[in-house]
Design goal:
With 563 residues, the protein is of the alpha/beta class. It has 2 domains: 1-106 and 491-563, Nucleotidyltransferase, domain 5; 112-356, no CATH class. It has 23 helices and 5 strands. 35% of the residues are buried.
Length: 563
Amino acid sequence: MLRKYEGELNFATDAWTSPNHKAYVAVTVHLEHDGVPITMLLDVVEVAESHTGVNLAVVFADILREYGISDKILSVTCDNASNNDVMIEELAKRLPDFSVVNHTRCFLHVTNLVAKSIVRQFDVKKADADAQLDAAEAELHDIAAGLELEEALAAAERSNEQGEMEGGDEDNDDGWVDEVVLLSDEERKTLETSIRPVKLVLAKLRKIAFKIIHSSTLLGPAWKRCLEDLDMSVRLMPRDVTTRWNSTFDMLSFAVDYRKAIDELTGDRKNELRKFELSEREWTIAEQLCKVLSILKDATLFFSRGTPNLATVIPAMDYIDTQLTNHAHDRSLAPSIRAALGIGKKTLNQYYELTDSSEVYRIAMILHPRHKLSYFMTAGWKQEWIDTAEELLRAEFDRSYRQEDMTDDEEVGAGLSSCATNPSSRTRNVFDNLPSLSAPSRKELRDEVDRYLSTDPEKVDNVLLWWFEHRAVYPCLSRMALDYLTIPATSVDVERVFSRSHLILSHVRNRLSAQSTRALLCVGNWSLLGLVKDSDVSAVSSMPDVDGDEDIELDDGWDSILL
């Protein structure tokens, strides 16, 4: 199926360590059929050696060669870890049909790094024993006392509840650069002073959440009574996790919605929570930070749906950049939040600049009928940048997609005269050579890009279906568009594979071999796509079960892909 696919193929990859301490690399392949996107798990292999960029490239290239599709690669989507940058460079050396300019960076990972840059500014670092603290700093450390221990306890509880290794849901920090280290000593001191109020707010909310959860006989019942008295839904307050910025947003969002209940609980002297009571100003800070983080939360949810389209990345980055800029200059916001947003904006700009080294983003944007070149103009791009983007599209079209199997002498209708001048000849039907029904000429093919760009942008809900339905109008350009618009903007499909892996490789069932894990995940995915024959399923189901919870190591090569 993949070898016969008429277009180019796109891939996404990521690494994962299972609960039974085996290191895996998974690869998904992305294509389309009749305008419908298809995502398929290509392979999951154990890589029992250091995940250097070179080693990852060797594994990736071997997978493609085993399937016989190493000459059909267009783009690879992966996170921003430095070893992936090396992997991309090595792949270009090992696969002649792949180029580093077709590297796609997982946008969900970029969003995560931007959020991390903002939220991490509010972490409370443990003070040195001999440090001289001013009154405000002393208050902060008094409120935050024991947070590290509480975090460790909460992590252990999550691990037991989820039945998986702690860290499975943690944010991926690979590629994150602490922008604060680039500041001068004076700038760092100013930043630290300005963000202290937010640190205090988050420390108080974390303490309140932890105490409600872990006081089942006093605060738990008191919290429930507060909610019932206020006619609010009975819910436990979520405590955020320092390794997951999303949880910080969730805690803030809950706190803002349940402010009345939190105020009532902390205001009751019997509950001994008065030191964690939030002032009016602190509630304002909580609301403002929640509003700012909601931008990144919405981006995370949007790009977690299905398989996000690559043409959405640049508009999304522009929107986030605009929002961060506007908020950073909004003097109605707390200075602490504005300062942190400045750090987050630097992280976003770092990855925005990296899109310039990849051609696929701009080409995909132009090939989206809703954008074409108009988006760049509206966004205020310099004309030379717009011209460069158009040149990239035209060069790739001429190089890889424009049909060249027609010579100038082979214009359609060349053989029409003999039939037209000799009506008695019935060896051919005159309509076989009717120019309007024949294949387009070479000149017409050459003008496909011109014709496409000369028309106005139009609202398109399903871009792949639009191009599929316009194949007759743009026979070559449609193929190019379908290839570029099936490039995944994120590696979320690979992460979904690993999420399913937790169900197979739990703490209880952790003795499966790498071979069995590969077979279960791949065949399971292929069967959902209807790629496994019923006869094969019947044959396997009739085989004897393996005794107990044991697994059998089979000879190397038993699971090789047969072409």
